[in-house]
Amino acid sequence: MPRTATATSSRQVRRLTTMAFFGPPVVVGLSLLAANPDWSGLGLVLGTFALIATLSLMIIAAPNGWLIVGGVIVGIAALSGAGPVLQAEMAHQGQRVEVRVTSVKTYQGRNGPEYTCLLGRVDGKPLKHAELGNDSCDGPMEVGQTEDVLVDPHGWTAPELAETDYSGIDIAAWALPVVLVLFELLVWLSRRVGLRRFEGR
Questions:
Q1: How far, in Å, CA of 31 to CA of 23, rounded?
Q2: pTM for the full predicted model
Q3: Which residues of 7-25 are buried (b: 16+ CB within 10 A; e: fewer)?
Q4: CA dist 76 to 5, 13, 28, 41, Å?
């Protein structure tokens, strides 16, 4: 990355924005990785770094306020939206199974104790990512109770309660490629604005 705050030539603008074009799909891909509980922390951390790097390349190529604000908004939507959409879609298409709460993990949150319910299938089959978070777990009194959950057939995402409302999932799934296209459009506009400074376009 150049040491100067802004690009100093049209060639540098092209090089910076060419690198930035790879940023949006990487951000979305890392958000999808974060949908897997085993990789959620790593996916979010790397996704945040990828977003910052992409925005930095855009700022250096074309220090334009509205482009950067747009990039921040669309970038955050890409980073925070792709994973939950995948998780909801996987569960929505998933298999309904009956599980029993086998134990509860308790930890201290900002507003008091928070809980994670550990699950086991009633039929004894293995269950990957067998946890329900604080929104779906009411604490130690849940131990021994049974619940119907939707299980991702591919084992990528965690189970979701069967009564979870997925009525908006189709709209959200269509919004994801729109966000990706908008992000790439902003990178392209950064190239145009940056080149105009040197070539008068």
A1: 12
A2: 0.82
A3: beebebbeebbeebbebbe
A4: 23, 24, 10, 16
Q: In this structure, what DSSP letter does residue 138 have?
A: -
Residue 116 CB contacts under 8 Å (≥ 6 apart), including other chains: 104, 105, 107, 131, 132, 133, 134, 137
Which amino acid type is present at position 124? G
Residue 103's alpha-carbon distances to 70, 73, 100, 106, in angstroms, are 45, 40, 9, 10
C-alpha 23: how far from chain center = 14
pLDDT one-digit tens code per residue, 50-109: 999 999 999 999 888 888 899 999 999 999 888 888 777 776 778 889 999 999 888 887
108-to-112, 139, 153 alpha-carbon distances in Å:
6, 12, 32
DSSP codes joined into one string, 57-109: HHHHH---HHHHHHHHHHHHHHHHHHHHHHHHHHHHTSEEEEEEEEEEEEEEE
